[in-house]
Amino acid sequence: xxxxxxxxxxxxxxxxxxxxxxxxxxxxxxxxxxxxxxxxxxxxxxxxxxxxxxxxxxxxxxxxxxxxxxxxxxxxxxxxxxxxxxxxxxxxxxxxxxxxxxxxxxxxxxxxxxxxxxxxxxxxxxxxxxxxxxxxxxxxxx
Length: 142
Fold this sequence. Notes:
Arc Repressor Mutant, subunit A, 3 strands, mainly alpha, 59% helix
């Protein structure tokens, strides 16, 4: 392969850098016990708990930016742990609505300060202004 370093540097690519930052974040997550929830399970449970009422699995997937297959797997694991429950939709018997259980809300309450600490540790190398800028730019990309 010819030297294309002037044209392309992997270390300057947004996807590569985002993946490295995410791996760093996950390493920090693994050092903590957030109610034995993965970051994806936490965000799924958090979104569901903050909805005013039961929602469909499809709607939940959109809220946490996950495809249908991933959402199904996360929902299955949370349901097996008794953290969420499903109920047949009154309007459409083919659909099921999801909601958190009392146990799910308790685990979430326990996990929330841990997840906040994980965020602080992930962002620790940055100044407060850099943290705000990073979050603003990430929101703009999303």
